[in-house]
Records
---
Amino acid sequence: MRDERKIGMIQLSGLHKDFHVKEGAVAALRDINLSIAEKEFFVLLGPSGSGKSTLLRCIAGIEDPDGGTMSLGGRVMFSGKTGIRVPPEGRQLGMVFQSYAVWPHLSVYENVALPLRYGANRIDPKQLKERVMSALELVQLEKLAQRPVPFLSGGQQQRVALARALAIKPKVLLMDEPLSNLDARLREEVRQQIRTATREVGVTVVYVTHDREEALALADKMAVMHQGRIMQIGEPDEVYHQPVNPIVADFFGEMNWLDGNIAKPGVVSTALGDIATQSTATGSVKVGLRPSNINVTDVQHGAVNAFAGKVTDEIFLGEQLQFKIATASGISLDVRQAQRARHRWLGRQVWCHVDPQDVLVYPAVEVSSQMQAA
Ligand SMILES: Nc1ncnc2c1ncn2[C@@H]1O[C@H](COP(=O)(O)OP(=O)(O)OP(=O)(O)O)[C@@H](O)[C@H]1O
Ligand SMILES: [Mg+2]
């Protein structure tokens, strides 16, 4: 039976693209397969140069892939095989970029109204005012409608860009690092507004960022990209807690890596000692322990995955303390833990505990082949 929900609003298959530069070809996108459901808030996350913007631009039609297919709402927009290529204005998309791209000589109202007066998204002039004002209400700018945009803050200008993109009632809203020009506090505020406004209108969103916290906060689903490839697709908690490989695990922050060997199912022998794991892997492995998954206590809690050590460094980070712990086995562990009091731990003998479900284990052979492919 065909499950209708599985047929994505955006469907990408085998998409690839090279850029040809002086030094040779750069594989910006390699074999991209992706299905984004209707009304989903989908985030493309990855480091600089991983291909996020290129992928977004291919969806928009500003850039052409070298091959593969892309469809929107069941309609083919690009096909390398048949040569179909629908231009950007035929794709019913809204776009918001890093630079606000608002017209400085126009008011807030006129900025939002302009695409509705001319071109592919023109509407009946009688409906114009209502359409513009309801878009401004979505981003809470209705009271500033008559203000010239240069007299707005960066965050407000970006909300104008968002209102303008939503006013055309796009099938899909594409956003490329829309918050990166804003300071930290504004970033969180506008982030919240993006989430609320896009939910309210129920639009499908593809959102590009290199900021993992932003991605985790916004995404219904996300894809982690690395050197033109999608490494993992999943919900934020799934990608965070069960990264499919060390590249994805590393991307979500510092990790403690150990070489290990599994001779007996469920137990990895490492230089730190034997570590209990839920992994079913065998043989030579790489073991990852996330600093925030290591729990530090004064007394030992249970015998499983408890490692004695001494705190050799303590850094205050506000919400968390970061420790360096020299374990009895000679391995140094990085640990992060929510703690109020500073200066309580340095030099103390402690116990480090790790839940077996938080022990990340990757077969060493796969790791080295992934590193080569990357
Ligand atoms: N017009 C171009 N000409 C040549 N190479 C390009 C061009 N655009 C992108 N690239 C290359 O393609 C790769 C992917 O670039 P892309 O802009 O998609 O990365 P990104 O993930 O958006 O990075 P960032 O986070 O820095 O914006 C990079 O290696 C980049 O140098
Ligand atoms: Mg980019």
---
Amino acid sequence: MSSTSTNAAHERPHPMDRRSLVDHARALDCIHCGLCLTTCPTYQLTGSETSSPRGRIHLMRAVAEGRAEPDATFEDEMNFCLVCRHCESVCPAGVEFGAMMEFSRGALLERKPPGLLARIARWVGFRGILVRRAGLRLAAVGLRSAQLLRLDVLAGPLLGLRGQIFRHLPRVPGARERRPLPPITPPEGAPRGTVLVLDGCVMPELFGRVNRAMTQVLAATGREVRSVPKHVCCGALHAHNGELDQAEALARTTIAQFNEVDDAAPVVIDSAGCGAHMKEYGRLLANDPEWRDRAATFSRRVVDLTEELAGPEGVERLRERLGDQHGIEGPVTWDDPCHLCHGQGVRDQPRQLLDLVPGLERVEMSGADSCCGSAGIYTVLRPEDSLDVLEPKLESLEQTGAATLVTANPGCHQQWQIGIGRSDKKVEVLHLAEVLERALRPR
Ligand code: SF4
Ligand code: SF4
């Protein structure tokens, strides 16, 4: 993972070693050209060099070289970053900013543990809820009960901005909607082989309909779709928030559980954040001699749903199946999830797929590839910054005149619902899989 890491097994350098606090070797890649500055949402908000990718790299180098202390300003700048990776897309030197940030956050956590309450919250969230199906179900039931009792409406006045966000969280659907994917969904028409799909951690509880739509659309293109019932979490949120040991453990579990079902089929993901992370398991486990090859092989099998569908055979099957009786309000606009366009380099396929739907008018939104401010749990940790980042995107959405906004990541889906819910706009937010499923003609 880091070139400053030791090579022994999956050991990382001791966190008290100043040089290991940041990935010094990667920081040296930056040539200070500044091309990344205007793409960075936190630089756009503050106009401050320190809050830009180049500024953060400068801070990282200063700490690594002993010229500065990893003080509160350093920590705040690391946490202010959304890890949207927009800076990576424009960087001529190939600086891997996302990996550097995960490494720095991990080392910061070890070196400077948060207070007791934050430690308990992190333990409950990352080790109690996210990794256990029972924990996720319990949390979903709790949130649904709060929504049914309208406690979410009270949360605004009681908890300020965090409460308002709570109020605009997606409605947790009823238990019938929160059922897991079937182990096998047979193909429709001539079979085209098997794919595995990720059900995910929060997806089945909040966006189970999206997973089912993905399954239906894949089956409609001739794929046998297999889920992995034992699996819960890929570890993306853990990695982004510096919980690296847990992220590595979850990567090993994910690989083992998927391989147990099928060790060669493509692994199709409808959540951009999870897909970007699973494509990097090879990097995450690079220092583990027992797992690194298996991890790299597994990562090569991971594809986003849009990559899978936009292949020639997928497109041909979709053309046969898509009709104009979808009832989707137009115009429709596509918002690139950061972890799809910057993290995976997938930009054209979603647009191409939307253009296949008969009668759908697609309009481009300016700044579609800028961050919406969701960034995993950033919405909860830094609600004001998160909404400030979304604000210009809401204006861009307004300018398109779109009645439907399409995305492909649960965090972005939720963030847009929060932003639109706080405004007087009437724009439906849909996952691309839902658009395609609605347009499928019955066979
Ligand atoms: S990852 Fe995003 S927020 Fe962080 S420095 Fe890069 S562009 Fe800025
Ligand atoms: S674009 Fe890359 S090389 Fe240029 S300043 Fe930003 S991070 Fe450094």
